[in-house]
Amino acid sequence: MKTKVFGNTSKVMKKAVGCMVVAGVLLALGRPAYGQASETEMRAFRIPPANGYAQTKNFSYVGDYGYYLVPPSSSPGTGSGATDYKYVRYTGVSGKKVWIYGAWGTTSIPAATASTDACQHAHSSYGVWGKYQFGFLSGWIFLGGGGMSGKRDAQGRCVLSTDNPLKTTDSRFGWGKEFLNFDFSSNTIFKELVIGVLSNTHGWGSCTVPSGFKACHEPSWAIAYTLR
Questions:
Q1: Structure pTM?
Q2: In a domain, 1, yes or no
Q3: Which domain holds residue 50?
Q4: Has residue 188 been placed in a domain?
Q5: Is the pLDDT of residue 32 over 80?
């Protein structure tokens, strides 16, 4: 599905029980332990980000792309504020069709056991902002994103999706789209795109936690490419 932006260049703008247990733990730990921003919270993030850009990529030709693993390793963390996300800046988007999304990185998600399933404790979210210039007007606008949580598919594989059981408990666990695409081929208003990504775990993860509840910020993929 194609996402339309500034139409016609003039409009600027295991399981239910397991899920309940997860939600209960997170609620008991308080808001920061969600580790994943809601759509409303993400819309309020300030761009350019206060913590800067992990990577910058210029699209110099149609067919160019930029895939980045950010951060490259995990660390203890429960926050979901703007500076907990890692950002990649893409320039040279004018005159191109751009596909862009964030995704779970390289951390292996363990197989389910009789007592627990790490899959439903794995989350990933991303947001995309566009820098526009229209006459004397310029600025940044939130273009969309998605919040995803893990679920098992028919083959037993853990896949992160916006459509998952946890989203009925709290919408931050499942919202938006799993990827976005924009047609800037005849729309030169937008000059840049920025994507912010965060993947996180609760109760497990590849980080080393000094003490207490295990929660990690895991590596994420920031992916964007251009096509005709």
A1: 0.85
A2: no
A3: 7-227
A4: yes
A5: no
